[in-house]
Structure formats: structure tokens, C-alpha cells
Amino acid sequence: EKPRLLDDEEGGVLFFGASPSTSSGYGYSSMERQKQRLPVYKYRTPILYLVETHATTIIVGETGSGKTTQIPQYLKEAGWADGGRVIACTQPRRLAVQAVSSRVAEEMGVKLGEEVGYTIRFEDLTKDGVTMIKFLTDGVLLREMMDDPLLTKYSVIMVDEAHERSISTDILLGLLKKIQRRRPELRLIISSATIEAKSMSSFFQTSKRRREMEGKDLGPRMDPVILSVEGRGFNVQIHYVEEPVSNYIQAAVSTVLLVHDQEPMGDILVFLTGQDDIDAAVQLLTEEVQNRGKSCSGLTILPLYSGLPRAEQELVFAPTARGKRKVVISTNIAETSLTLEGIVYVVDSGFSKQRFYNPISDIENLVVAPISKASARQRAGRAGRVRPGKCYRLYTEEYFVDEMSAEGIPEIQRSNLVSCVIQLKALGIDNILGFDWPASPPPEAMVRALEVLYSLGVLDNDAKLTSPAGFQVAEIPLDPMIAKMILSSSQLGCSEEIITIAAILSIQSIWVSSRGAQKDLDEVKLRFAASEGDHVTFLNVYKGFLQSGKSSQWCYKNFVNYHAMKKVLEIREQLRRTAQRIGIVLKSCEGDMLVVRNAITAGFFANACHLEAYSHNGKYKTIRGSQEVYIHPSSVLFRVNPKWVIYHSLVSTDKQYMRNVISIDPSSLTDAAPHFYQHQRPSSMLH
Ligand code: ADP
Ligand code: MG
């Protein structure tokens, strides 16, 4: 049966009449019936037809319509995974990769890691020759290109959540477009929750001349085609606050209680920004519920953010018991990446955590910033999946209408580009400014990135990767500054220690969130505190953990997060393997912390700061851009305020705070990066 094509010219928009499903559902398992009820099911044949006949298919469909979980299964059923080929589906978020792949494995009745598998950084649950459908982050797929530039094992690559415009998605789209020219048999599916698809379509548009050339060809049409999956969302009533709220955590908690008091049954989804404010809201809400006693029973409160232990993630998807109400307090991961059944009420703070980069000061921050109208609409839409719902916006209507921007800015235009540049260079893309981007990154950011990579010794005068250092750094699946730190530790004889530090820095935190016992946590930290700073403190914690026999009891006593430490062990093992593969000598410095500090400086010299003379409030200035920064209260150097420090990252709230700080000797800066500092500032500044 051929689908009805209305407008097949020039990659225009196609709408398929949604024919009523012919199957009665009789005789199918309940899982099968559930699958057939998803909006995307009616488009199964058209989707397969378009993928067969077009190199690139763009699929737009509301969140929850079944794009992510169903389309890879349709492709497999149609034979796209035959003959050892693999169907890939990328996601911007690790948590989504895990959740979605386990759902698909369940639907197919197979064990996760066999026919259906997933790969995220430091975790590979796939089997060569067995896995047919593979979910992975877009970042991991980029890494795979370093070994297999044409991604030959994949028959179809579905780039999911394209509307998010994550930095890796954009790089990936640019590269896939190139790959397609060399491998016309490769099929791409770009799927997106919003109708920003036209710009994607024009990005994949081929030139007229090319179309003429391929005229006689029997291969797929190279022009992209757009398919719109009509959802069946229910009406969502929007409520605004009358006056701006000053504390959105408090306001969110009050709104949840109000809904629970006054509205009929149905689950609540609250959008906050990150682990900190989600934990705070969970705690506040739990206290309120306890205070109210019986009148407020039947409320289950669950957090949702990446970095949550597996068991807690799964609770979020569990159906709510009869007579109970679930409240999920989430980051914007529940905006489009994950669908929760049973949500009827949405509380939208109007904020999310977003990356911002300023090329002038060379500072990248994760900041809490207002969302766009497009995001606000997506969030509201979550309330209308099972029946008409309500969305409570914790901002005024005037604010929504007059001040919220229509669309978000692609991440590539607000990020530090160091990782992006090195990856493209490693893939042999030399002319980075001339690269075919879906959205061009700012040239100043590009120049900054080139400068840092040059100072790290990763790029040479011609902006080519240096050999071997540049290639080695590119091989390590971490930020180039961390990779350089690991590389230097090889020469300095402290790679075992530095790999431990790198593993710990790549997870969110090794401490349990204090849950109201901040003072106790601070005291416990003092047991491990090293005068050098946080990095060395991490080594002490790690040593204590090993000496305890990796005991969970020990972790509990010391406010250390046991799951996080297990993760650190895993990551550390993987990094050791990578290190050995690229020829790094594994060696311990046996307690010589000077070399450890030198290795850190070799990677992070660009993050050096100096305590302002006569500063009584711990004000530092970055050496590079003279920005005002402070040591974060969670650091062991908070209030110690050494004269010279290097930080690992910045967080900005009321001020710019340095997280994970180590004190250094300024002379090590000029040793580590003579060009960088002499070029930037007269050397007198350094003394
Ligand atoms: P889309 O990608 O279009 O947003 P999905 O394929 O993610 O839609 O979701 C389709 C349906 O599958 C959802 O309605 C949801 O009910 C179900 N689903 C997805 N993931 C899970 C999960 N981890 N657990 C239970 N149900 C899930
Ligand atoms: Mg999806």
C-alpha cells in the first residue's frame, strides 16, 4: 500500500491522511495494543516507504507520539538490521538513552544489551553481531567516527530530539551530511518535537546540479522529505501567576499543594532547573506534607535528573497506585526526551539550566536562565497526554507574551568550542570556519578555542593536530583540558593519581547531598581535606574508600555517595584502558603532590586566578580575562583563600563561584604555558 503523497517536490511538507487503524487489536497482547494506540503507529507504512526512497527523512511529532521507541522497531521489522547492520538512534541525554533503550527491550521481549542495546560515555551495553537497535548519545556517535569515519556498520541513523539543537547534534548533522555523499545508501531520520523542521530540511537540501546528476540513478532521492505525525494531545488550560514570584522553588511547592488539595486525581510534573533546586523542592514538599499529616496523604514525591541512581529513575515510570498521586520534580529532561504516563498537571518554573559562554572573558557557565516560548509550550503539552490537563506557569502572562524569546539559541552559539574543534580536527576537518554548520558558531569563540588548543600543545602553527600529543588528547573521551592533564601526568609520573582525579571530576559529586545536615557534611569533609585543595582531597577520599574494602557502610559514615564511588571505579578502569592504549605510562607518584599539582596546571593553566590584594572577602580575578570570581563554599579552600589557584569549573548564582579548586605556585604557570601567559599579559603581572 503506497502512502498518499501530497507534495513531493523540492522536499516540501507532506501530510498523510491518518487512516483509521484496521486492526481491532483482538488477539494481541496488551503491550502490542499499547503500541498500536500510539499516534506514530498509523504512519508506520509511510515512514518505512519514505525511508526506503529518501536519503533523509525528517519526522516531526509531538512528544509521546512514539517516535523514539517505535520507529527503530519498525525499521528492524522492515529488515534494516538484516545482515549484521545496525540501526542507531541518538539522544542528547544519557538518561534518555538508558530509559528509552530499556523500554524498547521490554517491548520487544529481549534482554537489554542483546538485540537492543545502548552506549553512553563509559558504559557500553551492546554486543557485536547481536545488537540490531542501538541507542546512544550523539556525543558517543561522534567518537565512533574517529575509528570508523563513515559509520559503516549503521544502515539507518535516527538523530532524535533534533529540536534541542545540542552542540553534539549540530556537529553530527554537519558530519552526517558529508558522510551521506560518500555513502548514499545510508539513511538518516531527523526527528524533532517542533516544526522548526523547515530549516533542517533546507540544511539537507542538495544542490540542483547534484539532483540532475543523480537523475538516472536508482538510489534514494537525496532531497529531504518532511513527515508530520499528528498527535492527539488534549486541551491544556494555562494558568499564570498574577504577580511575579520571587522564589520559584517555594512557589512550585505551594502550587503542588494547592493542586493536590483542590484538583481531581492525576499526576503532577514540576519543571525546575537542576539537582540543587530539585532536592530543595523535594525536601520542602516532604516537610509540608508531613506537617499537614492526614489531610495531605497519598502524595508520592519523586525527583528526576541525570545522575540519579538507576533504581530511583525507574520509580518515575512506575504506574501510580489507585487513590495515590505522584509528583515528579524534574529538570527539562521531561520536556521532550522522556514521556511520563498519567501526567495531568504541569507546574512550570519558567527556567532551565543553560550553558553560556562569553568569548571575551573566556568563561563558560551553567546558569539558570529563562526558557523560550517554544519550551514553555512543550512543557504545557505534557499535561494533555491522557486527558485534558492544566498547566500552572509561575510567571505572568505579560512576561510570557512580551519578554520570553520565541526560540532558544542553538547550544553551539553559546558554548566553549574547545572540545568541538578538537573533534573536528581529529576527523580531518581542517577548515573549521568553512564547515557546513546547521548554525554557525561565533568566530570569536572559534578563535578562543584555537588559541587554547594551541597553548595546550594540541594544535601546531598551522592549526593541525600535533603528533603525538594532539592525537592522544583527541583519543581521550574527556574535555581536552582534562585529557592534557592526563597526558602530562605520564611524563610527571603521577598518572594513577591523575586518572583518579579525572574520574571523580567527570561525575557530578562524590558527596551525598547534605539533606539538611550541611554542618555535619562540612565536618566530615575536614577529615579528608588537603591543604592543596579539592583535587588532592578527592585522592584522600578515594584512598579511604579503597582501604575500607569499598564498603558502603564506610561511605554512609563519611557522607560519601556509594553509587558515585562505584561509578568512579568504573570510569577509572575505562580511562586506564584508554590511557594504556595510547601509550601513557601508568605510575603512582607515591604521595608527591607537587607533581600532581603540576599535571593539573599543565591542563588547566587557562583557569588560573589570583587573590586580589587587600581583598577581605575572598575576591579573585581570572588572569586571563580579569573576571571577578570567588571560591565556592563547597570547596575545602573556601575561606582559606590561597594567593594563586586554578579552578576546574565555574558556577554562577549571585556571583561567579569556582568549583574544585587547587592552590598553585605561579611560576608553574609560566612553565606550563609560556606562550599563553606571556602573550596575554606582561610577565610582571605574574609576580
Ligand atoms: P516520542 O519519542 O514521540 O516522544 P516515545 O517513543 O518516547 O515518544 O514514547 C511513546 C510511549 O512509550 C509513551 O507514551 C510512553 O507511554 C511509553 N514509554 C516510553 N518510555 C517508557 C518507559 N521508560 N517506561 C514506560 N513507558 C514508556
Ligand atoms: Mg522521543
Automatic annotation (TrEMBL):
Instruction: Write out the entry's keywords from A to Z.
Output: ATP-binding, Helicase, Hydrolase, Nucleotide-binding
Can you give the residue ranges of the Helicase ATP-binding domain? 48-213
Question: Which EC class heads this enzyme's classification?
Answer: hydrolase
Q: Which Pfam families match?
A: AAA_22, HA2_C, Helicase_C, OB_NTP_bind, WHD_HA2
* Annotated InterPro entries: AAA_22, DEAD-box_helicase_OB_fold, DNA/RNA_helicase_DEAH_CS, HA2_WH, Helicase-assoc_dom, Helicase_ATP-bd, Helicase_C-like, P-loop_NTPase
This protein's record includes keyword Hydrolase: yes
Which protein are we looking at? RNA helicase
Q: EC number(s) per UniProt? A: 3.6.4.13
Q: List the residue ranges forming a coiled coil, or say none.
A: none
| SUPFAM superfamilies attached to this UniProt entry | P-loop containing nucleoside triphosphate hydrolases
User: Which catalysed reactions does the entry list for this protein?
Assistant: ATP + H2O = ADP + phosphate + H(+)
Q: Name one GO molecular function term.
A: ATP binding
> Where does the Helicase C-terminal domain lie?
252-428
